[in-house]
Design a protein that fits this description.
Length: about 650
């Protein structure tokens, strides 16, 4: 029997909830009125799920408890009368398994709980499977061949998908058991890294050897795994000059430091750094803690030390990228090496072999269909069909028959039996693009497919079992659609088991050169016009343009330019002048008064120009503006500033 703890300070509501839950077959572990009493009940009998009001008696509120629940890996669903503004944002950041708004209907409460348990089960299974695979891969490394650097690279790459990082710094023990040196792995492609031993580190960061030695001597001891986001990250940089040097060099915004066991012969700790703020959570720490023995014992001391030293002494000025050959090398032609796109590729790699549904989110033209195709191609269903359905382009009166099929004579005009898209996809995958366009009726039917794995043809004699993986996509804000009653909450949460959010092109301008090259190669071949590239000033304009139509617009731009080009390079960028960085056309004239956002953007760009683009450190843009670097970074991201 599933155990639910109710945390609610209104006694009438709490008892009403208890009655409903018991009636529906749940066991109620207790009713707590405050965070303190909730914690003591949790310690005595660990519930499977906590139903949690946000406003509670005492100093701590439901969100404080939620943070502790996340740390202890206990699922929870919020229950509240009021979810406005920042409270909702704060609540969402704690990763709840659902929300219930008071006053609630019994049916909605039970559906939300049902969905929460479904998601919990799915995430537990998926998590367990991923963890087992990771643990096995790491154990296999101990006996694998190759030199130690290659082995450590593999460790980095295996961890990558589970603990996202742009830079992994390993602090290595010396022969006397003290700190000896660092070895860093900077991610530069899906499976490509630059390896930085001490010498390379000195060259790239430009710091003096003595400074590195003193930073190493003063390196704080880390006894317990800890993650640093936002202000905590700034504090870490203030206290630890090695971390600061790394953060300043590569513009990192968050970190996770993970010490392995004290008796470990080789590695002292793993330090993960990320360009995105708020990357790390207790879930990452918990995963690493379960792998602690394997992570500490990957090398053989004497062999290792000599190899790192040799590598350091023989290196070039800039370390050459090293590529790891992994089984995953086919992302269906997805081009992109920006950190945010690499994290999309990591998620594809994680979810492909599992059987879970995937929800791909992103603006129009960001590559959602490409991602869906890639997931199918990397799954065990790859030799079975992938059926693509655009829900927006199906005529309203035919959608049901298109999706589920019909029997001959089931309605006027049904002259033959039709096999629907779901049946066509049997054994394989169905990609439902523009899912937000489905009517509520069809959403209910889709929900049934997800729950029961069966469909019913129109006019059919009964349900037909099918085995289809669903990948859905939308460019709509589904949460808003739900609030406004156009999208069903239960379907949303069932699809939301594994969301992949593709960033807009203006949020990853680093990818523009590679995408440009990719499309030039493709279209110059297609039109038989040998074009070598674009002029630097054209590329400059392309980097400044907000690309409201994303990659599709960039692709069309290159195709058009190649068709019109008279020479061997693209010399002109005919880009819509008044496109805004919000992805929507700007209808105002140039003389209009600028918005606060635009003024803020201009101000930041000007300061950045003055500091030669440097954000952190003395004289950096953050210091001049009096802002923590992390805050400046998130403002820049929001405003689409590179
Ligand atoms: N990362 C990428 N690398 C290479 N090509 C890409 C990439 N992303 C998108 N494209 C190309 O851009 C075009 C649009 O991509 P796609 O149709 O997958 O976008 P979408 O998000 O599904 O669009 P919509 O929301 O309009 O359905 C396609 O021609 C696709 O091949």
């Amino acid at each position: 029997m599933k155990k639910v703890l109710i945390v609610e300070d209104e006694s009438l509501v709490a008892h009403h909830l208890k009655l409903i839950l018991v009636g529906a077959g749940y066991r109620v572990s207790g009713i707590a009125e405050s965070v303190i009493s909730a914690l003591s009940i949790i310690e005595e009998q660990r519930p499977d799920l906590v139903l949690l009001d946000i406003h509670l008696k005492g100093e701590l509120n439901g969100i404080d408890l939620a943070r502790k629940l996340t740390e202890s890996n206990i699922a929870f669903v919020y229950l509240t009368a009021n979810f406005q503004g920042t409270l909702l944002e704060e609540a969402k950041s704690t990763m709840p398994f659902g929300f219930i708004v008071k006053p609630f209907r019994e049916a909605d409460l039970l559906t939300t709980l049902d969905v929460a348990f479904y998601r919990l089960q799915n995430s537990l299974e998926a998590g367990r499977q991923q963890e087992m695979e990771l643990s096995q891969k790491l154990k296999d490394l101990k006996n694998s061949g190759g030199n130690v650097i290659q082995r450590l690279l593999k460790v980095a790459h295996h961890l990558q998908a589970h603990i996202p990082f742009d830079y992994l710094n390993l602090i290595i023990r010396g022969s006397e058991g003290t700190y000896r040196s660092c070895i860093g792995f900077l991610r530069i492609g899906f499976d490509e890294y630059q390896v930085l031993g001490n010498q390379e580190f000195l060259k790239i960061t430009g710091i003096a050897t003595e400074k590195l030695i003193s930073a190493s001597e003063l390196l704080p001891i880390v006894k317990k795994a800890k993650f640093f986001n936002a202000d905590d990250f700034d504090q870490l940089c203030n206290q630890n000059s090695l971390s600061r040097t790394i953060a300043d060099t590569y513009d990192f915004e968050s970190a996770l430091l993970f010490p392995v066991l004290p008796g470990n012969p080789e590695i002292i700790r793993y330090e993960f750094y990320n360009r995105k703020g708020n990357t790390y959570s207790q879930l990452h720490v918990t995963l690493l803690s379960r792998l602690i023995n394997t992570l500490g014992n990957l090398l053989e001391t004497d062999k290792y030390i000599s190899t790192v030293d040799e590598l350091s002494q023989s290196s070039n000025d800039i370390p050459l990228p090293v590529r790891i050959k992994d089984r995953i090398d086919d992302f269906d032609g997805i081009v992109g090496q920006s950190s945010s796109m690499l994290s999309v590729l990591d998620q594809i790699a994680i979810v492909s072999p599992l059987n879970t549904s995937v929800l791909v989110l992103g603006e129009s033209g960001t590559g959602k269909e490409r991602v869906a195709k890639s997931i199918h191609a990397l799954s065990t269903r790859k030799n079975k069909p992938l059926i693509v359905v655009n829900c927006a382009s199906l005529p309203a009166n035919l959608v049901e028959s298109e999706l589920f099929g019909h029997e001959k004579g089931s309605y006027t005009g049904a002259t033959d039996r039709r096999i629907g898209k779901f049946e066509q996809a049997n054994g394989g995958t169905i990609f439902l693009d523009e899912i937000g366009e489905l009517t509520i009726d069809l959403q209910v039917k889709l929900l049934r497919v997800l729950q029961e794995q069966e469909i019913e043809r129109i006019g059919g004699k009964g349900p037909i079992k099918i085995d289809v993986r669903i990948i859905a996509a939308t460019n709509r804000d589904l949460e808003l659609e739900m609030e406004e009653g156009r999208f069903r909450l239960d379907l949303y949460y069932r699809l939301y088991v594994f969301p992949i959010e593709i960033p807009s092109l203006r949020e990853r301008t680093d990818d523009i050169p590679a995408l440009t090259e990719h499309f030039i190669t493709y279209y110059s071949k297609k039109y038989n016009k040998p074009i070598a590239g674009v002029l630097p000033e054209v590329l400059e304009q392309m980097l400044d343009y907000p690309w409201p139509g994303n990659v599709r617009e960039l692709e069309h731009f290159i195709e058009r330019s190649i068709l019109m080009s008279k020479g061997p390079v693209i010399t002109e960028a005919k880009l819509q002048k008044n496109a805004t960085n919000k992805g929507k056309p700007n209808h105002y004239s140039d003389e209009r008064t600028k918005t606060i956002e635009e003024n803020e953007r201009d101000y930041i760009v000007n300061v950045l120009k003055k500091c030669n683009g440097r954000i952190r450190g003395p004289g950096g843009a953050a210091e001049i503006m009096g802002l923590p670097p992390t805050t400046l970074h998130s403002k820049m991201k929001k405003l689409g500033i590179r």
